[in-house]
Amino acid sequence: MEYAFVKVSSKNQLVIPQDVMDEANMKEGEKLLAKATSNKIELVKISDDPLEEIRNANKGKEAEIREVIKEALKWKK
C-alpha cells in the first residue's frame, strides 16, 4: 500500500490506518518525528535512544564520515 486517507481532528490529531501501521512496522506508543514542508507531513519512527539509531544507520561508513569531518574542518579555517 502506498497511500491512505487520513483526517485531521479538531484537536489536530491523526489516526493512522492499521494497514499503514503494519506496513511501517509501527506499534501503539512508539515515538515519531514529524517534519512539515509546504503541503506534506513526513512521519519517521524514532527509537528511545536516537544516538544508538544514528550509530546503527552509519555502521560501515566510518571512513566516509571521517573524510567528511576532515573536509568540514578545512573549510572552517
Q: Biggest β-sheet, characterized?
A: 2 strands, antiparallel
Mean pLDDT: 86
Structural class: alpha+beta
Which residue ranges are poorly predicted, with pLDDT under 50 across at least 5 consecutive positions?
none
Q: What oligomeric state do the depicted chains represent? A: single chain
Description:
- This protein is an alpha+beta fold and 77 residues long.
- 38% of the residues lie in helices and 18% in strands.
- It is built from three helices and two strands, in the order αββαα.
- It has helices at 18-23, 50-57, 62-76; strands spanning 31-37, 40-46.
- The protein has a two-stranded antiparallel sheet with strand order 1-2.
- A hairpin with a 2-residue loop joins strand 1 and strand 2.
- The chain is elongated.
Task: Please sum up the structure shown.
With 77 residues, the chain is an alpha+beta fold. The chain has helices at residues 18-23, 50-57, 62-76, and strands at residues 31-37, 40-46.
How are the secondary structure elements laid out?
Elements: H1 18-23, E1 31-37, E2 40-46, H2 50-57, H3 62-76
Antiparallel strand pairs: 1-2
Observed structural traits:
two-stranded antiparallel ribbon, 2 domains, Pemi-like Protein 1, Chain: D, 18% strand
